[in-house]
Amino acid sequence: MKLSGLRVVDLSMFLPGPHLTMMMADHGAEVIKVEPPGHGEPVRHVQYRIGDETVWFRNTHRNKKSVVLNLKDPAGREALLRLCETADVLVEAFRPGVVDRLGVGYRDVAARNPRIVYCSIAAFGQTGPLAHKPAHDPAIEAQAGVLSLNLGNDGQPTMAHIPAADMAGSLMALSGILMALYRRQATGRGDYLDISMQDCLMAWTPNVTGPVFAEDRAPDVKNERSFGGMAFNNIYRTKDGRHIALGGVEPKFAEVLLTALGRPDLIPVTRAPAGPGQEPVKAFLREAFAQRTRAEWEAFLADKDVGWAPVLDLREAFHQPQTAAREMLVRDSAGTPHIGIPIKFADEPGTLVPETPAMGEHTDAMLRAVGYGEAEIAELRAKGAVG
């Protein structure tokens, strides 16, 4: 597989770091999850379970090894540094300054292994006035200006329904790590990555920053092209209370659908700028979609060259034929469902290994691998430096 032979030490918790290191594990990297003593990785304990494991943990920690180290103990810190001597990548997501206080910051690790690619993921990065501000995804989305775009029917901001800041941080961090590993082939040196989830999320907004950059104003959300200001980029309620989304504003799509619905006279109106000028088409489509059920619209639209989709709930989405064809819902030998691998190579594809580690399952084996003897391991365990 593409990343076979790489060793990754993962100090991160929750979602961005564990997700990116799981993607590396899916493609062959050996990932060593370092957990704190006590409860370990927090998502081991977050709500929905299948058997003894949470769904969240199972879908961020498959095919990893678990080592329990007390980084507040000098012996536990030394054990981590010895693991890092053999590693290619380290990922951490503590608040800025924590790893330096623990003695496992980039300078500490690079002194032992200058080839390591060290990635820090934080809400607002390592610099700036907000660097030390605690925040999870909703607060980061709010600070990035993105939550203000997510309005409910009452026109007020509503909770984000996907962890966009977390996942933007995960994917940008993965990209940066792979760039640094590629460059290391030529230079022999690793590097340090400072990943801000806010930065990453804001970098995802080029299609919606027009009003900000061109007119120095905040978006008027309901009238902007990307948020419902166009008739053919909108959501319509059907007779049975379900919904159909139109997601293509190209003139050819409007021509096809409006002709099929007997209103070709509205085609010129669809070329108006986003906003109130589109309202006659929106009003017609609202009335039209309300006349049939979602299933009836799916049948009607099936052979029409129009950008559209039924608004599926998440269960429907995971059980649709497209998901099955793309192997994005995978069941293991026990029938347990897993989210599939989205990066699909023709050669050396990733492999979904569903097993997840018990907390501290690999502590002894990994310590042995970096030179600790049995008596030393027993002493470390007795003093609480490892678990």
**How many structurally independent domains?**
2
CATH fold field value of the largest domain: Rossmann fold
Radius of gyration, taken over Cα atoms and rounded to an integer in Å: 25 Å
Major sheet: arrangement of strands: 5-2-1-6-7-8
Low-confidence stretches: none
Structure description:
The model has no long low-confidence stretch (mean pLDDT 97). This protein is elongated. The chain has two domains: 253 residues, 3-Layer(aba) Sandwich (Rossmann fold), CATH 3.40.50; 74 residues, 2-Layer Sandwich (formyl-coa transferase, domain 3). The strands form four sheets. Strands 5-2-1-6-7-8 form a six-stranded parallel β-sheet, sandwiched between helices. The chain has a three-stranded antiparallel β-sheet with strand order 9-10-11, covered by helices on one side. The two termini are 31 Å apart. It is α/β, with parallel strands linked by helices and 387 residues long.
Features:
387 residues, alpha/beta, Rossmann fold, 6-stranded parallel beta sheet, 3-stranded antiparallel beta sheet, 16 helices, 13 strands, 35% helix
Write a short abstract of this structure.
The protein is 35% helix and 14% strand. With 387 residues, the protein is of the alpha/beta class. It has 2 domains: 7-203 and 327-382, 3-Layer(aba) Sandwich (Rossmann fold); 233-306, formyl-coa transferase, domain 3 (2-Layer Sandwich), CATH 3.30.1540.
Topology record:
Elements: E1 7-10, H1 16-26, E2 30-35, E3 49-50, E4 53-54, H2 55-58, E5 65-68, H3 74-85, E6 89-92, H4 98-102, H5 106-112, E7 117-122, H6 137-143, H7 164-187, E8 191-196, H8 197-202, H9 210-215, E9 233-237, E10 243-247, H10 251-260, H11 279-289, H12 294-301, E11 308-310, H13 314-318, H14 321-325, E12 329-331, E13 337-339, H15 363-369, H16 374-382
Parallel strand pairs: 1-2, 1-6, 2-5, 6-7, 7-8
Antiparallel strand pairs: 3-4, 9-10, 10-11, 12-13
Helix pairs in contact: 1-7
